[in-house]
Known about the structure:
Elements (H helix, E strand, L loop, with lengths): L1 H28 L1 H8 L13 E5 L8 E5 L2 E5 L7 H10 L5 E5 L5 H4 L2 H7 L2 E6 L9 H12 L3 E4 L5 E4 L2 E7 L13 E6 L2 E5 L5 H9 L8 E3 L11 H7 L3 E4 L12 H11 L5 E3 H4 L2 E5 L4 E5 L5
Parallel strand pairs: 3-4, 4-5, 5-6, 10-11, 11-12, 12-13
Antiparallel strand pairs: 1-2, 1-14, 2-3, 7-8, 8-9, 9-10, 14-15
Helix pairs in contact: 1-2, 3-5
Amino acid sequence: xxxxxxxxxxxxxxxxxxxxxxxxxxxxxxxxxxxxxxxxxxxxxxxxxxxxxxxxxxxxxxxxxxxxxxxxxxxxxxxxxxxxxxxxxxxxxxxxxxxxxxxxxxxxxxxxxxxxxxxxxxxxxxxxxxxxxxxxxxxxxxxxxxxxxxxxxxxxxxxxxxxxxxxxxxxxxxxxxxxxxxxxxxxxxxxxxxxxxxxxxxxxxxxxxxxxxxxxxxxxxxxxxxxxxxxxxxxxxxxxxxxxxxxxxxxxxxxxxxxxxxxxxxxxxxxxxxxxxxxxxxxxxxxxxxxxxxxxxxxxxxxxxxx
Length: 307
C-alpha cells in the first residue's frame, strides 16, 4: 500500500515539475513558440532537398500565398475576412513567427479582408502595395491602413520593375505596366524566381492586364502560374497562357461560390495550354497546395488528392 502511494506521489510530483517547466518555457519564449516546439506543423517529408516553399492557402473565395525560404517569409494577400483566422492558423502550423514582407496585390476584400488578423498576430517587416489615385473607402481598408500606421510598419509604394529578395527567392514586380480603370487589372503582378524555377502571381489580373504585359514584352515565363481572378472567364486568355508556358497552374476559389469560379472556358484554355488537367490544382478541390523547390525541381504536396 505504501509502495503504491509512493509511486502515485512520485508521478504527481513529476507531472507538476513538467508542467512548471512548460510554463517557464512559455513565459520565456511565448506560447506561440511552445506551439511550434510541441505542435503538429503542417509539413510533410519530400524527396527533394527543398530550399524554398510556395504555399497556396485554402482561404475560401480569396487569395493568400505564403512563400518561405532561408528562414524568411513573404505573404502575398491575406484572404477574405471570414477566413482570416484560417490563414493565421495555417501560418502558425507552418512555424511562421514573423513575416518579413507582405504584398497586397490590390485592396478588394477577398485579398485584404484577413489582414487585420495577420497584423494582430505577426510582426511584419515591410509591406509592398500600390495605392490608387482614388483611395478605397471600405471599412476594411481604413482599418488596415490605421493598423499599419499604429504598428509603425514600413510601407513601400511599388511600381513595375521594383525588386526584392527573400531567402533564395528573387522577386520582381512586373505589372501593372499602365493604369487601368478597374481594380482587378491594377493588381500588382509578381514574378518569383528560385534557381531555374519561377512563379507568376497575378492577383486578380484579367485580359486587359495580360495584354499590356504581352505588348510590353515583359518576361512572363513561369513554371507555375497562379491563375488570375480565381479563374474567371475574363482571365488566362490563350495568347497569355502560351507565352507563360507554365508546367503547373493553381486556382484559388471556394467550392460552390456564387461567381462560378473557375469558369469552364478558362479551365479548357488551361487544359489546352498545359496538355491535361493533371497539373491544374484548385484550392476548392485540393485544399492547401504546397510546392517545394530545390532550384531545379518541383515537388507538389496536396492536402486533398483529386478523387
